[in-house]
UniProtKB/TrEMBL annotation:
The keyword Metal-binding does not apply. It comes from Hydrobacter penzbergensis. The chain crosses the membrane at residues 257-274. Residues 281-321 are annotated as: Disordered. SUPFAM superfamilies: PP2C-like. CDD domains: PP2Cc (cd00143). The keyword Mitochondrion does not apply. This is Protein phosphatase. It comes from the Bacteria.
Length: 321
């Protein structure tokens, strides 16, 4: 799978940066694993939780063999336990960080599937032709109200409690608090977006069609989206925006190579058969000077050989999170 990745991890209108992403920069030879976290407000240690979360989940998933939904869940549980232990150790020396927590948005590509997991209101989208064909469901108060039909999605955008989330990663998080699934319908030219809620203040779903479709291989989408958010976003804003350039690059190369190898083998076989046939022919040469004593001389042609050589937490407006 050939992926082009664009990143943002910006402070926005906050006093400190509590968002975290890993890897900091994606290279083609890297494991296709992407994590975005948003430290939750209510304490000054949101950046601690988001940093620990990105490192724990990355370290465990990057070395894992994920070939099924169950294998994915097992590694998520292992990463959560590691995160909770490290946060617990931090709290022992920093008691004021007792309530620290973070959101999570994670995506791992494995065997042409997208394994995704999230907790809180950091979002994961799959986009095709400028349209969202998959969107994670926030663990938030307004998302619950929308699901119950109490408010509309449009009303949720301006709801006074839109910053209240119902789940996050902390020392009290249960494995079942993390939602996960596997997306198998992935096509060339699809986009995947993992982002914190701050990005969506300015880069809304209405921009998907106008900015991301059609795909421009010469465009730096990090700069394009940052231009929308910079000096306009009150929150930190972070993202991993991923474009699927090719799904079968290695397979296609092999499929092109096979006919060439077959042709070389056929040519080598034909040449060998020709040489063998020629070697069995005898040519008699008579001397014109001595017709009575002519001798037959056996001549053969020499044979040639050829060889063919991858509980709700309030994210308070205006306060760090």
């Amino acid at each position: 799978m050939n992926i082009r990745a664009f990143t943002l991890n910006e402070i926005g209108g906050r006093k400190n940066l509590e968002d975290a992403i890993l890897p900091k920069r994606y290279l083609p030879q890297d494991i296709p694993l992407f994590i975005v976290c948003d430290g939750v407000g209510g304490s000054s240690f949101g950046e601690v939780a988001s940093d620990i979360a990105t490192r724990c989940y990355y370290n465990i998933l990057a070395t894992a063999v994920v070939d099924s939904e169950q294998a994915f869940k097992n590694k998520l549980d292992e990463a959560l336990a590691s995160f909770q232990q490290q946060v617990h150790d931090y709290i022992l020396t920093h008691p004021a960080a007792a309530t620290t927590s973070t959101t999570l948005a994670l995506l791992l590509f494995s065997q042409h599937n997208a394994y995704i997991a999230w907790c809180g209101d950091s979002k994961i989208y799959q986009l095709r032709n400028g349209i969202s064909i998959y969107k994670s469901k926030d663990h938030s108060l307004v998302a619950t109200l929308v699901a119950q039909g109490v408010i509309t999605e449009k009303e949720a955008l301006m709801h006074p409690q839109r910053n209240v989330i119902t789940r996050s990663l902390s020392t009290h998080t249960h494995p079942s608090d993390i939602t996960y699934t596997v997306l198998s319908d992935i096509r060339e030219d699809d986009w995947f977006l993992l982002c914190t809620d701050g990005l969506m203040e300015q880069f809304t779903e209405d921009h998907f069609a106008t900015i991301l479709f059609p795909y421009n291989p010469f465009s730096n989408y990090s700069e394009v989206i940052d231009a929308l958010c910079r000096n306009n976003t009150k929150d930190n804003y972070s993202m991993y925006l991923l474009h699927i350039n090719s799904l079968k690059k290695k397979v296609a190369a092999k499929s092109r190579l096979f006919p060439v190898l077959l042709l070389l083998l056929l040519i080598a076989g034909a040449w060998y058969a020709y040489q063998r046939s020629s070697g069995n022919r005898h040519t008699q040469i008579s001397s014109p000077m001595k017709p009575d004593t002519s001798k037959s001389i056996m001549m053969t042609h020499p044979q040639k050989k050829e060889a063919v050589q991858q509980d709700s937490v309030a994210k308070q407006p205006g306060k760090p999170h």
